[in-house]
Protein backbone atom coordinates (compact mmCIF):
# COMPACT_ATOMS: atom_id res chain seq x y z
CA UNK A 1 0.00 0.00 0.00
CA UNK A 2 1.01 3.60 -0.59
CA UNK A 3 0.90 5.98 2.36
CA UNK A 4 -1.00 9.24 1.92
CA UNK A 5 -0.56 12.26 4.19
CA UNK A 6 -3.78 14.23 4.62
CA UNK A 7 -3.14 17.62 6.22
CA UNK A 8 -6.23 19.01 7.91
CA UNK A 9 -7.68 15.52 7.94
CA UNK A 10 -9.86 16.14 11.00
CA UNK A 11 -11.85 18.85 9.21
CA UNK A 12 -15.14 18.32 7.39
CA UNK A 13 -13.74 17.71 3.91
CA UNK A 14 -10.58 16.16 5.37
CA UNK A 15 -12.54 13.52 7.27
CA UNK A 16 -14.48 12.65 4.12
CA UNK A 17 -11.21 12.29 2.21
CA UNK A 18 -9.78 10.07 4.94
CA UNK A 19 -12.88 7.84 4.89
CA UNK A 20 -12.61 7.56 1.12
CA UNK A 21 -8.91 6.62 1.34
CA UNK A 22 -9.49 4.05 4.09
CA UNK A 23 -12.02 2.33 1.85
CA UNK A 24 -9.42 1.92 -0.91
CA UNK A 25 -6.99 -1.01 -0.47
CA UNK A 26 -4.29 0.86 -2.42
CA UNK A 27 -3.69 3.34 0.40
CA UNK A 28 -2.96 3.71 4.06
CA UNK A 29 -3.29 7.08 5.74
CA UNK A 30 -1.46 9.49 8.00
CA UNK A 31 -3.46 12.48 9.23
CA UNK A 32 -1.82 15.70 10.38
CA UNK A 33 -4.13 18.00 12.33
CA UNK A 34 -3.91 19.89 15.61
CA UNK A 35 -7.58 19.25 16.27
CA UNK A 36 -8.68 16.08 18.04
CA UNK A 37 -9.19 13.25 15.57
CA UNK A 38 -12.34 11.15 16.09
CA UNK A 39 -12.00 7.64 17.42
CA UNK A 40 -12.54 5.94 14.04
CA UNK A 41 -9.72 8.02 12.56
CA UNK A 42 -7.34 7.25 15.42
CA UNK A 43 -8.09 3.54 14.99
CA UNK A 44 -7.59 3.53 11.23
CA UNK A 45 -4.79 6.05 10.67
CA UNK A 46 -1.47 7.21 11.99
CA UNK A 47 -1.95 10.64 13.61
CA UNK A 48 0.47 13.56 13.60
CA UNK A 49 -0.42 16.63 15.70
CA UNK A 50 2.45 19.09 15.18
CA UNK A 51 2.16 22.64 13.84
CA UNK A 52 2.63 22.34 10.09
CA UNK A 53 3.82 25.95 9.84
CA UNK A 54 7.05 24.63 11.37
CA UNK A 55 9.20 23.16 8.62
CA UNK A 56 10.59 20.48 10.92
CA UNK A 57 7.07 19.38 11.84
CA UNK A 58 6.01 19.43 8.20
CA UNK A 59 8.98 17.23 7.30
CA UNK A 60 8.14 14.84 10.16
CA UNK A 61 4.50 14.61 9.06
CA UNK A 62 5.50 13.93 5.44
CA UNK A 63 8.27 11.41 6.09
CA UNK A 64 7.44 8.13 4.35
CA UNK A 65 4.42 9.56 2.51
CA UNK A 66 4.92 9.68 -1.27
CA UNK A 67 1.43 11.14 -1.70
CA UNK A 68 0.21 14.34 -0.01
CA UNK A 69 -3.27 15.89 0.06
CA UNK A 70 -3.00 19.40 1.49
CA UNK A 71 -6.24 20.56 3.09
CA UNK A 72 -4.98 22.30 6.22
CA UNK A 73 -6.13 25.93 6.17
CA UNK A 74 -8.32 28.45 7.88
CA UNK A 75 -11.65 28.21 6.10
CA UNK A 76 -15.31 28.77 6.89
CA UNK A 77 -18.28 30.74 5.67
CA UNK A 78 -18.54 34.23 4.26
CA UNK A 79 -18.39 35.84 7.71
CA UNK A 80 -15.04 34.22 8.41
CA UNK A 81 -13.54 35.79 5.29
CA UNK A 82 -14.39 39.25 6.59
CA UNK A 83 -13.68 38.67 10.28
CA UNK A 84 -10.22 37.10 9.95
CA UNK A 85 -8.62 38.36 6.72
CA UNK A 86 -5.11 38.80 8.09
CA UNK A 87 -5.21 35.72 10.30
CA UNK A 88 -6.20 33.40 7.48
CA UNK A 89 -3.63 34.96 5.14
CA UNK A 90 -0.86 34.65 7.73
CA UNK A 91 -1.71 31.09 8.74
CA UNK A 92 -2.33 29.76 5.25
CA UNK A 93 0.87 31.31 3.88
CA UNK A 94 2.80 29.90 6.82
CA UNK A 95 1.43 26.48 5.96
CA UNK A 96 2.39 26.85 2.29
CA UNK A 97 5.96 27.85 3.13
CA UNK A 98 6.55 24.82 5.32
CA UNK A 99 4.48 22.21 3.49
CA UNK A 100 5.87 22.92 0.04
CA UNK A 101 9.42 23.04 1.42
CA UNK A 102 8.91 19.64 3.06
CA UNK A 103 7.38 18.21 -0.11
CA UNK A 104 10.42 19.29 -2.12
CA UNK A 105 12.83 17.98 0.53
CA UNK A 106 11.13 14.57 0.53
CA UNK A 107 10.66 14.38 -3.23
CA UNK A 108 6.97 13.45 -3.00
CA UNK A 109 5.45 11.63 -5.97
CA UNK A 110 2.27 13.74 -6.07
CA UNK A 111 1.29 16.86 -4.15
CA UNK A 112 -2.47 17.34 -4.31
CA UNK A 113 -3.48 20.86 -3.31
CA UNK A 114 -7.10 21.45 -2.35
CA UNK A 115 -7.87 24.96 -3.51
CA UNK A 116 -11.30 26.65 -3.58
CA UNK A 117 -14.00 27.92 -5.89
CA UNK A 118 -13.17 31.33 -4.39
CA UNK A 119 -10.27 31.68 -6.83
CA UNK A 120 -13.13 32.39 -9.29
CA UNK A 121 -14.68 34.94 -6.94
CA UNK A 122 -14.81 37.61 -9.66
CA UNK A 123 -15.55 35.36 -12.62
CA UNK A 124 -17.70 36.66 -15.46
CA UNK A 125 -17.73 33.56 -17.71
CA UNK A 126 -20.15 30.69 -17.03
CA UNK A 127 -19.98 27.81 -16.73
CA UNK A 128 -16.50 28.68 -15.50
CA UNK A 129 -13.78 26.46 -16.94
CA UNK A 130 -10.34 25.76 -15.54
CA UNK A 131 -8.82 27.41 -18.61
CA UNK A 132 -10.48 30.71 -17.64
CA UNK A 133 -8.34 31.15 -14.51
CA UNK A 134 -5.49 33.16 -16.13
CA UNK A 135 -8.09 35.67 -17.41
CA UNK A 136 -10.20 35.76 -14.25
CA UNK A 137 -9.87 38.97 -12.20
CA UNK A 138 -7.92 38.51 -8.98
CA UNK A 139 -10.09 37.60 -5.96
CA UNK A 140 -11.18 40.53 -3.81
CA UNK A 141 -11.33 38.60 -0.52
CA UNK A 142 -8.25 37.65 1.47
CA UNK A 143 -9.50 34.07 1.47
CA UNK A 144 -9.86 33.83 -2.30
CA UNK A 145 -6.44 35.42 -2.75
CA UNK A 146 -4.94 33.03 -0.20
CA UNK A 147 -6.29 29.94 -1.97
CA UNK A 148 -5.09 31.29 -5.32
CA UNK A 149 -1.68 31.79 -3.71
CA UNK A 150 -1.54 28.07 -2.99
CA UNK A 151 -2.12 27.36 -6.67
CA UNK A 152 0.74 29.72 -7.53
CA UNK A 153 2.98 27.82 -5.07
CA UNK A 154 2.13 24.55 -6.86
CA UNK A 155 3.01 25.86 -10.27
CA UNK A 156 6.10 27.70 -9.04
CA UNK A 157 7.47 24.63 -7.23
CA UNK A 158 6.83 22.58 -10.34
CA UNK A 159 8.45 25.12 -12.68
CA UNK A 160 11.59 25.54 -10.59
CA UNK A 161 11.97 22.14 -8.88
CA UNK A 162 9.74 19.74 -10.83
CA UNK A 163 7.22 19.18 -8.01
CA UNK A 164 4.51 16.84 -9.35
CA UNK A 165 1.16 18.39 -8.43
CA UNK A 166 -2.59 18.23 -8.91
CA UNK A 167 -4.96 21.08 -8.00
CA UNK A 168 -8.55 20.35 -6.96
CA UNK A 169 -11.11 23.14 -6.49
CA UNK A 170 -14.17 22.07 -4.48
CA UNK A 171 -17.32 24.10 -5.02
CA UNK A 172 -19.71 24.86 -2.14
CA UNK A 173 -19.01 21.83 0.04
CA UNK A 174 -21.79 20.67 2.35
CA UNK A 175 -22.78 17.51 4.14
CA UNK A 176 -22.73 15.71 7.48
CA UNK A 177 -19.82 16.75 9.67
CA UNK A 178 -19.95 20.55 9.65
CA UNK A 179 -21.83 22.06 12.57
CA UNK A 180 -23.26 25.58 12.44
CA UNK A 181 -21.65 28.40 14.38
CA UNK A 182 -23.29 30.65 16.95
CA UNK A 183 -22.38 33.63 14.76
CA UNK A 184 -24.15 33.58 11.37
CA UNK A 185 -21.80 33.46 8.41
CA UNK A 186 -18.86 31.85 10.20
CA UNK A 187 -19.84 28.35 9.08
CA UNK A 188 -21.15 27.64 5.58
CA UNK A 189 -24.68 28.42 4.44
CA UNK A 190 -26.22 24.94 4.55
CA UNK A 191 -25.59 24.13 8.25
CA UNK A 192 -26.40 27.74 9.22
CA UNK A 193 -29.78 27.65 7.48
CA UNK A 194 -30.60 24.15 8.72
CA UNK A 195 -29.92 25.33 12.27
CA UNK A 196 -32.31 28.24 11.86
CA UNK A 197 -35.05 26.08 10.39
CA UNK A 198 -34.72 23.42 13.12
CA UNK A 199 -34.80 26.20 15.74
CA UNK A 200 -38.14 27.38 14.37
CA UNK A 201 -37.02 30.70 12.90
CA UNK A 202 -39.92 32.38 11.06
CA UNK A 203 -39.41 34.05 8.62
CA UNK A 204 -36.15 32.39 7.62
CA UNK A 205 -33.18 34.76 7.53
CA UNK A 206 -30.65 34.71 4.68
CA UNK A 207 -27.92 37.12 3.64
CA UNK A 208 -28.67 39.30 0.62
CA UNK A 209 -31.35 39.07 -2.04
CA UNK A 210 -31.24 35.28 -2.32
CA UNK A 211 -30.59 35.55 -6.04
CA UNK A 212 -26.89 34.71 -5.57
CA UNK A 213 -26.19 31.28 -7.04
CA UNK A 214 -24.15 28.39 -5.73
CA UNK A 215 -23.33 24.86 -6.92
CA UNK A 216 -23.69 22.71 -3.82
CA UNK A 217 -21.41 19.66 -3.82
CA UNK A 218 -21.66 16.91 -1.21
CA UNK A 219 -18.48 16.26 0.77
CA UNK A 220 -18.48 12.58 -0.21
CA UNK A 221 -18.49 13.55 -3.88
CA UNK A 222 -15.71 16.06 -3.24
CA UNK A 223 -13.66 13.45 -1.39
CA UNK A 224 -14.10 10.97 -4.22
CA UNK A 225 -13.07 13.60 -6.77
CA UNK A 226 -9.94 14.54 -4.82
CA UNK A 227 -8.80 10.93 -4.39
CA UNK A 228 -9.60 10.11 -8.01
CA UNK A 229 -7.52 13.09 -9.19
CA UNK A 230 -4.64 12.27 -6.82
CA UNK A 231 -4.42 8.70 -8.14
CA UNK A 232 -4.87 9.47 -11.83
CA UNK A 233 -1.81 9.64 -14.11
CA UNK A 234 -3.84 11.94 -16.37
CA UNK A 235 -4.19 14.48 -13.54
CA UNK A 236 -0.45 15.04 -13.18
CA UNK A 237 0.29 18.79 -13.18
CA UNK A 238 -3.35 19.59 -13.96
CA UNK A 239 -6.15 21.48 -12.21
CA UNK A 240 -9.79 20.44 -11.84
CA UNK A 241 -13.09 21.89 -10.72
CA UNK A 242 -14.50 19.30 -8.31
CA UNK A 243 -18.16 20.11 -8.28
CA UNK A 244 -21.72 19.14 -8.96
CA UNK A 245 -23.30 20.77 -12.00
CA UNK A 246 -26.65 22.12 -10.74
CA UNK A 247 -26.72 25.88 -10.20
CA UNK A 248 -29.21 26.98 -7.51
CA UNK A 249 -30.00 30.35 -6.02
CA UNK A 250 -29.54 30.80 -2.29
CA UNK A 251 -33.30 31.25 -2.00
CA UNK A 252 -33.92 27.96 -3.84
CA UNK A 253 -31.48 26.19 -1.52
CA UNK A 254 -33.19 27.70 1.53
CA UNK A 255 -36.54 26.42 0.25
CA UNK A 256 -35.14 22.90 -0.22
CA UNK A 257 -33.81 22.97 3.35
CA UNK A 258 -37.17 24.24 4.61
CA UNK A 259 -39.06 21.43 2.92
CA UNK A 260 -36.56 18.67 3.77
CA UNK A 261 -36.87 19.67 7.44
CA UNK A 262 -40.58 18.80 7.16
CA UNK A 263 -42.13 22.27 6.99
CA UNK A 264 -45.19 23.33 5.00
CA UNK A 265 -44.00 24.63 1.60
CA UNK A 266 -46.78 27.24 1.63
CA UNK A 267 -45.40 28.73 4.87
CA UNK A 268 -41.94 29.39 3.41
CA UNK A 269 -40.96 33.03 3.84
CA UNK A 270 -37.58 34.75 3.75
CA UNK A 271 -36.20 37.74 5.62
CA UNK A 272 -33.29 39.34 3.78
CA UNK A 273 -30.37 40.49 5.93
CA UNK A 274 -27.68 42.90 4.70
CA UNK A 275 -24.96 40.87 3.06
CA UNK A 276 -21.19 41.15 3.34
CA UNK A 277 -18.86 43.34 1.30
CA UNK A 278 -17.73 40.28 -0.66
CA UNK A 279 -20.64 38.00 -1.56
CA UNK A 280 -20.16 36.15 -4.84
CA UNK A 281 -23.12 36.84 -7.14
CA UNK A 282 -22.80 33.73 -9.25
CA UNK A 283 -20.93 30.45 -8.92
CA UNK A 284 -21.38 27.86 -11.64
CA UNK A 285 -18.37 25.82 -12.77
CA UNK A 286 -17.79 23.71 -15.81
CA UNK A 287 -17.26 20.09 -14.81
CA UNK A 288 -16.38 18.81 -18.27
CA UNK A 289 -12.63 18.52 -17.64
CA UNK A 290 -13.06 16.25 -14.61
CA UNK A 291 -15.57 14.17 -16.55
CA UNK A 292 -13.45 13.78 -19.67
CA UNK A 293 -9.97 13.50 -18.10
CA UNK A 294 -10.75 11.67 -14.86
CA UNK A 295 -14.02 9.95 -15.71
CA UNK A 296 -15.40 11.53 -12.55
CA UNK A 297 -18.64 13.34 -11.80
CA UNK A 298 -20.66 14.13 -8.69
CA UNK A 299 -23.44 11.64 -7.94
CA UNK A 300 -25.31 12.87 -4.85
CA UNK A 301 -28.28 15.11 -5.62
CA UNK A 302 -28.85 18.26 -3.58
CA UNK A 303 -32.13 17.18 -2.02
CA UNK A 304 -30.73 13.79 -0.97
CA UNK A 305 -27.53 15.40 0.31
CA UNK A 306 -29.39 18.00 2.34
CA UNK A 307 -31.61 15.26 3.79
CA UNK A 308 -28.46 13.46 4.98
CA UNK A 309 -27.16 16.70 6.47
CA UNK A 310 -30.43 17.45 8.26
CA UNK A 311 -30.53 13.93 9.68
CA UNK A 312 -26.95 14.31 10.98
CA UNK A 313 -27.59 17.74 12.49
CA UNK A 314 -30.71 16.46 14.28
CA UNK A 315 -28.40 14.10 16.19
CA UNK A 316 -26.03 16.87 17.28
CA UNK A 317 -26.25 19.08 20.35
CA UNK A 318 -26.74 22.49 18.74
CA UNK A 319 -27.04 24.36 22.03
CA UNK A 320 -23.47 25.63 21.82
CA UNK A 321 -24.15 26.88 18.30
CA UNK A 322 -27.02 29.02 19.46
CA UNK A 323 -29.86 26.77 18.25
Number of DSSP helical runs: 11
CATH fold assignment of the domain at 2-173 and 219-242: Rossmann fold
Q: Roughly what percent helix?
A: 25-40%
Task: Determine Rg (CA atoms, Å).
Answer: 19 Å
Bulk shape: globular
- Our measurement of the CA-to-CA distance between the termini, rounded to an integer number of angstroms, reads 44 Å
CATH architecture of the domain at 2-173 and 219-242: 3-Layer(aba) Sandwich
Detail the poorly predicted runs.
Answer: 319-323
Assigned CATH class of the domain at 2-173 and 219-242? Alpha Beta
What strand order characterises the main sheet?
3-2-1-4-5-6-11
- CATH homologous superfamily descriptor of the domain at 2-173 and 219-242: NAD(P)-binding Rossmann-like Domain
Average predicted confidence as pLDDT: 94
Helix vs. strand class: alpha/beta
Biggest sheet details: 7 strands, parallel
What is the ordering of alpha helices and beta strands?
EHEHEHEHHEHEEHEEEHEEHEHH
- The fraction of residues in strands falls at 15-25%
The total count of strands amounts to 13
Structure description:
39% of the residues lie in helices and 16% in strands. Helix 3 (55-62) crosses helix 5 (85-106) and helix 5 runs parallel beside helix 6. It has a domain at 2-173 and 219-242: Rossmann fold (3-Layer(aba) Sandwich). The strands form four sheets. Strands 3-2-1-4-5-6-11 form a seven-stranded parallel β-sheet, with helices on both faces. Strands 7-10 form a two-stranded parallel sheet. Helix 1 (12-22) links the parallel strand 1 and strand 2 (27-32). By secondary structure, the chain is an alpha/beta fold.
